[in-house]
Design a protein that fits this description.
Number of helices of chain A: 11
Strand order of the largest sheet of chain A: 1-2
Order of helices and strands of chain A: HHHHEEHHHHHHH
Oligomer: heterodimer
Strand order of the largest sheet of chain B: 8-9-10-5-11-12
Strand content of chain B: 5-15%
Structural class of chain B: alpha/beta
Shape of chain B: elongated
Structural class of chain A: mainly alpha
Radius of gyration of chain A: 19 Å
Largest sheet of chain B: 6 strands, mixed
Largest sheet of chain A: 2 strands, antiparallel
Mean pLDDT of chain A: 86
Helix content of chain A: over 70%
Number of strands of chain A: 2
Helix content of chain B: 40-55%
CATH class of chain A: Mainly Alpha
Distance between the termini of chain B: 35 Å
Number of domains of chain B: 2
Number of strands of chain B: 12
Distance between the termini of chain A: 52 Å
CATH topology of chain A: ABC transporter involved in vitamin B12 uptake, BtuC
CATH class of the largest domain in chain B: Mainly Alpha
């Protein structure tokens, strides 16, 4: 393998990995405050991409682009917030795993069925905002660099939010000990809904910014969902640093597999990674073992 | 010990209280009729459709078992069905193998993929397995196309089995009968399962993996077994699909196909025996047959119905309906058990000279145990020694590390440093269920009582889990107790009584060494006196060694041979009760406490 090929795999892998890292972070926000993993995350990100396809004008100026972006991200915020209301509704006191697995999965099925009704199995193509960048003489879509920047942005922002805002501090408290948080008078339900909303912001920006390089169609959400979750399992559930490290790893490895064996094996490699990590290091390669609760 | 052991064997059949619920027969009759009636009338289309639907019901029954007994979610059963079907079809259609041989190949392929689900299930549970199974559902159809040289690729494989498709009468074929037979077997299996040892273990594992470990059950093994059983049943359906449809194409088993089974179980009602039947009939027949024009909206309808069902019936259809009925009855009256009913205990206090002489062997020895979570120190170098044949009281204010100590001994908490010995053997890194099998029993601060099991079954699992209980020590009273509570619902027990039930369970396990975590919480004064007497009875007559964590200090001082006082993760004092009582440090610790 030449140095050019390696650079290509690395750059595109890291770009794809940024998508997985961002999905991983959107998992983390919700899981840390409620123990819920949103199975609709992949499809929701695809939804943002479909909206970008629908509403971006053919040759967007910067203002038009920014307005559409704002609208889509705001829509995702509200949509995922409402999904949070639905998901939390059946959970009266305890976190009952069955109900949220089912409700989030059902939302994923509904959203992807709607996309399918609109566009069939065809992929939606969204034109890039910026021209491609040349890396080692190879033309690379600019969206990959925007995605890496976006992942860095959310990584810093979420960290800042957790440390410096009241809602963020309350979220960290709830993440560490739900019952203690309740006892301290934190409105746990509201905090959990904020978390859903913020995860919607992350997914909305990811789907929009990544639209030119994301495979947008009714069936592809699950693949992104699994890659994002695999990234988390590798990096340690709940850790955003883990999401970034795990995401990059999954991105580069699956890009390598796609390059070497063909794109059709990309998900197979991800599945292999997921099962291997769960078998041999369920607490994650970089994560800390969760303390047992009795 | 007990002189009544001959009585004890009266009622020890392996599947105790086994009755097949009438729902099983109703289901079998309904499905048999759905295939045989159109078949006898010679209606090719309907007998074909209902045979196909019946195969799907088998898959859904297996999925239902996974959800309701094993508590595990699978989004990948369609892939197992698919791999069994494809393997069978390839062996018949491309390699000309006979059906029976190909069927075995299909079953093995299904089990291999099931093993891929079962292997991570050894280590993790719940949503992790949801993702693993979903990834298989996603990857399987991709691999079918990628490996087209083996699988026939996009063109699919035709495979006919004449011997199974030749009509016997009307359009009833041997295959229709096989489908009915397989479905009946699946339904009967699911009907019997909750009344078997395996079924009870699945229920325990899914409700409380900690309680399972404390009963000596390895939760991962039980989860894996559940996945393998489900894979087997699903693979049988997948194999029968081949001769029925006569063709296996790669597009038949996409992710939607797996999700269909999952949603069918949810819509039909998880845990309900007939849930899969109703769910598959509703979700398959309505959009595909009755509203064929709307089949585009199929997935949308599936998703929406599942969402509505979950929001309208948060406890599942069965749970919601049964709690509604309970509420209409004005709430069944509370019941109360008494431990006194369960043991041959004359009610008199044991005289000191009756007591078996303790030989002084050390059963529990914890040395310099340290454990911290971040900055919070749970144990800061605490040591504890418990001698055989004694009741050892462990007291201290809230947060002093009592429960951490219990968790260290039973293995639920791994130490940062220090050693733990049980029965003279170092067990520091040993898993909790292995310690249970060495002869350690425990109860929990929040009692682990399973409402899906009857009151008696909640006791019985103690014996089943530990797996070495003899009849020794089993009293004739216990037989009466068993008969009385065989079918009673434990949700009618008040909280304190649930603790007593757990104590009874741990006594049934026949473990010589028992850890009790606040057993007197929520008990009345009379019940406390009763419990104190019984603890002495357990020690003196049944030879038990007990480590007792309790807030009721007068109770501890009444029964304990030795007392250890903990404070902020360390040992404040340890020794004979009378010495502890006069220890000024201890007095200061409990000033303002309830007693001492």
């Amino acid at each position: 393998m030449s140095i050019d090929e390696l650079a290509l795999i690395l750059v595109r892998g890291l770009g794809q990995g940024a998508i997985y890292a961002l999905i991983g972070m959107s998992f983390n926000i919700v899981v840390n405050s409620s123990g819920i993993l949103n199975f609709a995350n992949g499809t929701l990100m695809i939804l943002a991409g479909v909206l970008a396809f629908l509403f971006l004008p053919a040759t967007p100026g910067f203002v038009g682009w920014a307005l559409v972006a704002l609208a889509i991200v705001a829509f995702l915020f509200v949509f995922v917030l409402l999904q949070g209301v639905l998901t939390l509704f059946p959970l009266k006191s305890s976190v009952e795993q069955h109900s949220w697995l089912i409700t989030t999965m059902a939302v994923s099925v509904i959203v992807s069925a709607c996309i399918h009704l609109y566009g069939g199995s065809l992929a939606f193509r969204v034109p890039p905002l910026l021209p491609p960048v040349s890396v080692f003489g190879l033309s690379t879509p600019s969206a990959y660099f925007l995605l890496i920047g976006l992942a860095a942005f959310w990584f810093v922002m979420i960290g800042w939010f957790h440390k410096n805002t009241r809602a963020g501090l309350a979220m960290s408290a709830v993440a560490q000990d739900l019952d203690a948080g309740k006892a301290a008078g934190i409105p746990v339900r509201r905090i959990q809904l904020y978390a859903f909303g913020i995860s919607g912001l992350v997914l909305g920006t990811t789907g929009f910014v990544g639209a030119p390089v994301i495979n947008i169609s009714a069936e592809t959400g699950i693949g992104y969902l699994l890659s994002g979750f695999t990234a988390l399992v590798i990096g340690g559930l709940g850790s955003n640093l883990g999401a970034v490290v795990g995401g990059s790893l999954v991105g580069v490895l699956s890009m390598f597999a796609a390059y070497r064996f063909g794109g059709i094996y990309q998900d197979t490699v991800t599945m292999g990674l997921l099962i291997a990590v769960l078998m041999f290091r369920p607490e994650g390669i970089f994560g800390l073992a969760a303390s047992r609760k009795v | 010990m007990s002189q009544n052991s001959q009585l004890a064997s009266a009622d020890r059949s392996p599947v105790q209280g086994l009755r097949l619920p009438s729902m099983v027969w109703i289901g079998i009759l309904a499905i048999a009729a759905s295939i045989l009636v159109p078949g006898a009338l010679g209606n090719q289309y309907w007998s074909y459709t209902f045979t196909l639907v019946t195969l799907y019901i088998i898959v859904a029954v297996m999925q239902n078992m996974l959800v309701s007994e094993a508590g595990q979610m699978s989004f990948g059963q369609g892939a197992i069905f698919g791999i069994a079907a494809v393997t069978t079809a390839v062996m018949i259609g491309l390699h000309g193998q006979p059906f029976w041989f190909s069927a075995i190949g299909g079953l093995i392929a299904g089990l291999v993929l099931g093993g891929l689900f079962a292997a991570p299930a050894l280590r993790v549970q719940g949503y992790y397995l949801g993702f693993v199974t979903l990834s298989a559902a996603l990857v399987f159809p991709q691999l079918l196309i990628a490996l087209d040289s083996i699988t026939g690729g996009v063109n699919g494989v035709p495979a006919f089995v004449m011997s199974l498709s030749t009509p016997l009468y009307g359009t009833i074929t041997p295959l229709s009968l096989l489908a009915i037979l397989a479905m009946a077997a699946a339904l009967i299996f699911h009907g019997i399962l909750p009344h078997t040892v395996l079924g009870r273990r699945m229920i325990i594992v899914s409700n409380s993996p900690e309680a399972a470990q404390a009963l000596g059950i390895h939760p991962g093994t039980i989860r894996s077994i559940a996945f393998l059983i489900a894979a087997f049943g699903t693979a049988v359906a997948g194999v029968l699909y081949v001769p029925l449809v006569g063709f296996v194409g790669p597009t038949a088993f996409r992710v939607d196909f797996s999700i269909f089974f999952f949603l069918a179980v949810i819509v039909g009602g998880q845990g309900k025996l007939l849930g899969p039947l109703i769910g598959v009939w509703l979700l398959y027949l309505v959009p595909n047959v009755l509203l064929a024009d709307f089949s585009h909206y199929r997935l949308l309808i599936y998703g929406a119905v599942a969402l509505v069902v979950m929001l309208a019936f948060p406890d599942g259809v069965v749970g919601t309906v049964s709690s509604f009925i309970a509420a209409r009855r004005g709430g069944a009256s509370k019941v109360a058990i008494s431990l006194n009913d369960a043991f041959d205990h004359d009610g008199k206090d044991v005289q000191a000279d009756d007591r078996a002489e303790p030989n002084g062997a050390v059963l529990i020895s914890v040395q310099e145990a340290r454990k911290s979570f971040g900055n919070a120190v749970a144990l800061g170098g605490a040591s504890l020694t418990v001698k055989e044949g004694t009741i050892h009281g462990l007291v201290g204010p809230n947060g002093s590390g009592k429960t951490s100590m219990l968790n260290t001994i039973s293995g639920f908490m791994t130490l940062d440093s220090g050693t733990v010995k049980l029965f003279g053997r170092v067990v520091t890194g040993l898993a909790p269920w292995r310690r249970t099998r060495m002869g350690l029993g425990r109860t929990f601060q929040t009692p682990r009582i399973f409402d899906r099991l009857s009151i008696w079954e909640n006791v019985q699992i103690g014996r089943e889990g530990y797996g070495r209980g003899g009849d020794a020590g089993r009293s004739s009273k216990l037989e009466v107790f068993a008969a009385k509570w065989r079918d009673q619902d434990p949700s009618l027990l008040p909280h304190g009584q649930r603790r007593l039930l757990e104590i009874l369970r741990v006594m049934e396990s026949d473990a010589p060494l028992i850890l009790l975590d606040e057993p007197a919480g929520g008990l009345s004064t009379e019940e406390r006196t009763e419990l104190s007497r019984l603890l002495v009875h357990f020690r003196d007559r049944l030879g038990k060694t007990i480590l007792l964590v309790e807030h009721d200090l007068s109770m501890v001082w009444n029964v304990a041979d030795e007392i250890t006082v903990m404070e902020t993760g360390t040992i404040a004092a340890s020794g004979l009760p009378e010495n502890i009582k006069s220890n000024p440090k201890v007095r200061a610790l409990f000033t303002g406490g309830r007693d001492a």
